[in-house]
UniProtKB/TrEMBL annotation, chains A, B:
It comes from the Bacteria. Keywords: Carbohydrate metabolism, NADP. Residues 7-208 form the NAD-dependent epimerase/dehydratase domain. GO terms for molecular function: oxidoreductase activity. InterPro entries: DenD, Epimerase_deHydtase, NAD(P)-bd_dom_sf. This is Nucleoside-diphosphate-sugar epimerase. NCBIfam families: ErythonDh. It holds the Pfam family Epimerase.
Length: 330, 330
């Protein structure tokens, strides 16, 4: 049997990074066990439980001199590049956003190039639907211009351009996935301006009060954490020739208004849960969210086999299965 | 009378830079004489003849440490950022292309930001239709995705993203113009892969033989040097509020096949001129050109008052008026 892949994950301590690590450790990739997992983040990533392969955890900042070269010196077959400063923080700290999100990404691609020889790792880059900005149509097609209205979106869009060029030149074998807003994010709120989309469901499902900072008629594009991990795993094994010349793909998701989110919550958890949501408008968050897309057509990703939830109830149900029932079992 | 603008031009020694300098010196900008012209390039730019304002010429590379800061320390009102490595060279020298075209552009925007206070120069950035790449429709609309298939195109597209973000954040007041292929370029061929589009007209008009490296049915998007300078001047005085949120504009032009270019040459200069063209296919150039767009719809730029030629004969005629008759007069 062929040896399994050696895998590097940046941003491994983040929510998606942890779920991806667990999935790779438990299920392997493309039907093969993973030979080695190298987990990297600015805080120490937890090694997976009961994993038979090699494992290493490194605390490092990809944008620091020499870090990217050191990380790629082991020539991993696959790199999941998830490390990023979130949208709210990139907006608040201009320099840090560019350093981590743009320079860090470029350093990673450049380090792969500097390895030389026939080294050409599959790099799966987590981009975002924040690469799209107003004005845009209500439903955004696959070929729509990237005109981000946040620094975060600009940094991701520039990363996509670099990924395409480094791939075309033969230095890497990249795939960029524009992830929908992940909902319901488990755990504590983070600094992302999009955090409330999860909070208004998660907190009530846990019996806590939640704050809704925008109007209930705000519409947005969602997929569960389980789908997001599925996208990453699928992208890691997708044959390059199937990508044609477009390596940056908008991922499928489900379009819902905040009101529709709350209706789904009501159906699953009852009126008492809905009553836990406090509407406290926040103009700063409303302004950022207003520049974000609402719905997509994603025929390219669907044809390549990417799949997401198809209604809001399913998205709520995934949280209950993966977080609440899972937590009770463990 | 209000003092005229102080203007910095990067890439001032290039063909468009020289024509822009001459136009600003002779005609001013927006009906006002120019108070100061600072010309910068990696080779010494020629100061304009008979110009009443201040003039300075600097030999410098924008991507070198501290150069951008020094250039902006005089706080010019308007910056024309034309400096770039051309497409063929950016493809041949990966590092140099990124250093000059991406890092140099970023250094310029960053230097404007570092000036601080209320300094917010209008920066007119010469982007290119090379930001578009296959697959694309035969006629590309204003909102089409930027998916360049050359490193040059990626560098220009990334520059556009930065320009938009630095403008949105209030650090600069940028406008990016995606220039059509400029035709007929005067003077000697340069390293651009697009050079033959001018060469097959220019050389025969000067009684010289010319090489056509691609098929006559290759279609492309053209404007004269006179139009290109006109775009830059118009962009320099366009009120920011008229740009809405889209500061990166595809410029109008004229779509023609190589065969139609040659027919126009025949109409203007006769069959003897056409007979001077040798068809010598070059697969490398054909491959690059094959990834370039052929025609555009540019309603956004047209609504903002940008104008180009509307047929190929006019494009040939502009060369004769501005270069051959002008040369005879001088």
């Amino acid at each position: 049997m062929q040896a399994g892949p050696r895998i590097l994950i940046t941003g491994a301590a983040g929510m998606i990074g942890r779920k991806l690590t667990a999935a790779l450790a438990a299920d392997g990739l493309g039907g093969r066990p993973v030979a080695a997992l190298h987990l990297v983040d600015v805080v120490r990533p937890e090694p997976p439980e009961s994993f038979a392969g090699e494992v290493a955890a490194t605390v490092a900042d990809l944008s620091d001199e020499g870090v990217a070269e050191a990380l790629l010196s082991g020539r991993p077959d696959i790199v999941f590049h998830l490390a990023a400063i979130v949208s709210g923080e990139a907006e608040a700290d201009f320099d840090k956003g560019y350093r981590i999100n743009l320079d860090g990404t470029r350093a990673l691609f450049e380090a792969a190039r500097r390895q030389g020889g026939d080294y050409r790792p599959r790099i799966v880059f987590s981009s975002s639907i924040a690469v799209f900005g107003t004005p845009f149509p209500e439903v955004i097609p696959d070929d729509y211009v990237l005109s981000p209205r946040t620094s975060y979106g600009v940094q991701k869009a520039a990363g996509e351009l670099l990924l395409s060029d480094y791939s075309r030149r033969g230095f890497i074998d990249g795939v960029a996935l524009r992830l929908p807003t992940v909902c319901i994010r488990p755990g504590r709120p983070n600094l992302a301006a999009s955090g409330f989309f999860s909070g208004i469901l998660r907190e009530p499902l846990n019996g806590q009060r939640a704050v809704l900072p925008v109007s209930p008629d705000v519409r947005h594009w969602f997929a569960s954490p389980r789908s997001a991990v599925g996208f990453l795993l699928h992208a890691a094994t997708l044959p390059a020739e199937r990508l044609d010349k477009r390596r940056c793909l908008t991922m499928p998701g489900f379009s819902a208004t905040v009101a529709e989110q709350i209706e789904a919550l009501g159906r699953v958890a009852g009126a008492d849960a809905v009553a836990l949501i406090d509407h406290v408008p926040d103009p700063d968050i409303a302004r950022i969210v207003d520049s974000w897309p609402r719905a997509f057509e994603t025929p390219r990703a669907v044809a390549l086999g990417f799949r997401a939830e198809t209604d809001m109830d399913e998205i709520v149900q995934v949280y209950i299965e993966d977080e609440l029932e899972g937590a009770r079992r463990s």
